């Protein structure tokens, strides 16, 4: 069995690539995740053979047997990252090594084979090189990259599969949320994850389980849902697909600690690093919803924001519950601490701020 580190990618030419004119039209105002680039990456895994058959090929439909394990037992994981046009018109990806590590952690939790970090990054690089003309240059624009893996073994039986497909696809995107602060709904009906579950893994089931709660938020005219912990139903954990931060009137910030029920966000980790370098007092600790409501009313809580790959940093203006709502900091946009963190994060991603951590991974 050859080493996965030695895999060479076969490049299959696209018979009908998107014309420059059509591509410009599609990229003028892309809805998030709706526009596909021309190519995808595919690598196969088979027990006893390992990772093999690495290809860059025209994006197209996949063929699966109706008994493919993913369709019945949900062995599936994914990642999300972005490629950016830099200040010198190059292309860089933000912290793909962190995505590669988290992907392996998710695979381990879901009893799936571990793809080497180097092979994961090479696969992402190959797709970005193939579709480099799809990387937009606007201030809020980027190429969203989605690596994912699923069990395609054809059998009916509850056990880890023996065959898997790893793919990478991409889409040019604009801002995830519209301008201004968002309104969030605190769900007291549904929980996202429980101790011992899959909350720290980036698997599709976590997101499927959040959709009804998200619909509940929409029914209450909110942009996103906030989940409480599954044990006490008091402590804030995370949003439907993002981590959450709180800024207090003494200049300190806090975010829920990683306890196994919260996704270890790469944007979250980056913000913690940036905040500490700015000299801010940073806490990772439980924060109860009743305390948040009290702190917002008293003025102790002055800013709240969501963060994630898709949304970057997005201010939260209103927290709504079944018993009423509070406005955070009496503003409709980002507060000064939120904005200062966002400026450094986005500046680093686009090469405007010196990268002192090796976060920028240059592709071109």
Automatic annotation (TrEMBL):
User: Which InterPro entries does the entry link to?
Assistant: Aminotrans_IV, Aminotrans_IV_CS, Aminotransferase-like, B_amino_transII, BCAT-like_C, BCAT-like_N, BCAT_family
Supply the alphabetized keyword list: Amino-acid biosynthesis, Aminotransferase, Branched-chain amino acid biosynthesis, Pyridoxal phosphate, Transferase
Residue ranges, annotated region (Disordered): 1-20
Instruction: List the Gene Ontology MF annotations in alphabetical order.
Output: branched-chain-amino-acid transaminase activity
Catalytic activity field = L-isoleucine + 2-oxoglutarate = (S)-3-methyl-2-oxopentanoate + L-glutamate; L-leucine + 2-oxoglutarate = 4-methyl-2-oxopentanoate + L-glutamate; L-valine + 2-oxoglutarate = 3-methyl-2-oxobutanoate + L-glutamate
One Pfam family it belongs to: Aminotran_4
The pathway where this protein functions is:
Amino-acid biosynthesis; L-leucine biosynthesis; L-leucine from 3-methyl-2-oxobutanoate: step 4/4; Amino-acid biosynthesis; L-isoleucine biosynthesis; L-isoleucine from 2-oxobutanoate: step 4/4; Amino-acid biosynthesis; L-valine biosynthesis; L-valine from pyruvate: step 4/4
Q: What is its EC number?
A: 2.6.1.42
Which cofactors does this gene product need?
A: pyridoxal 5'-phosphate
Which function does this protein serve?
Acts on leucine, isoleucine and valine.
Q: Which family does it belong to?
A: Belongs to the class-IV pyridoxal-phosphate-dependent aminotransferase family.
Q: What is this protein called?
A: Branched-chain-amino-acid aminotransferase
Q: Which organism is it from?
A: Acetobacter conturbans
Q: What is the lineage of its organism?
A: Bacteria, Pseudomonadati, Pseudomonadota, Alphaproteobacteria, Acetobacterales
């Amino acid at each position: 069995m050859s080493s996965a580190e030695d895999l060479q990618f076969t490049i299959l030419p696209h018979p009908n690539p998107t014309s420059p004119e059509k591509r410009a039209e599609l990229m003028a105002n892309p809805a998030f995740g709706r526009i596909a680039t021309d190519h995808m990456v595919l690598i196969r895994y088979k027990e006893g053979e390992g990772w093999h058959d690495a290809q860059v090929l025209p994006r197209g439909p996949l063929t699966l047997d109706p008994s493919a394990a993913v369709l019945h037992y949900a062995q599936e994981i994914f990642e999300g990252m972005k490629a950016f046009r830099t200040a010198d018109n190059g292309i860089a990806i933000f912290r793909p090594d962190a995505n590669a590590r988290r992907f392996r952690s998710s695979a381990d939790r879901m009893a799936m084979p571990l793809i080497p970090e180097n092979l994961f990054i090479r696969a992402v690089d190959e797709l970005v090189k193939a579709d480099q003309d799809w990387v937009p240059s606007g201030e809020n624009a980027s190429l969203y990259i989605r690596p994912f893996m699923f069990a395609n073994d054809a059998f009916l039986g509850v056990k880890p599969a023996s065959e898997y497909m790893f793919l990478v696809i991409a889409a040019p995107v604009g801002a995830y949320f519209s301008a201004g602060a968002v309104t969030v709904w605190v769900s007291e009906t549904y929980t996202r994850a429980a101790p011992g579950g899959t909350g720290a893994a980036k698997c599709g089931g976590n997101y499927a389980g959040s959709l009804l709660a998200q619909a509940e938020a929409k029914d209450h005219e909110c942009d996103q849902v906030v989940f409480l912990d599954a044990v006490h139903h008091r402590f804030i954990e995370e949003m439907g697909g993002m981590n959450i931060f709180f800024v207090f009137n003494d200049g300190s910030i806090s975010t829920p600690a990683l306890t196994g029920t919260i996704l270890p966000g790469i944007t979250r980790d980056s913000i913690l690093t940036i905040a500490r370098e700015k000299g801010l007092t940073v806490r990772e600790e439980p924060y109860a919803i009743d305390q948040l409501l009290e702190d917002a009313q008293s003025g102790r809580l002055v800013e709240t924001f969501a963060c994630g790959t898709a949304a970057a940093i997005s201010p939260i203006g209103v927290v709504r519950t079944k018993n009423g709502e509070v406005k955070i900091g009496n503003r409709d946009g980002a507060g000064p601490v939120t904005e200062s963190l966002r400026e450094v994060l986005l500046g680093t991603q686009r090469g405007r701020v010196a990268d002192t951590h090796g976060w920028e991974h240059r592709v071109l």
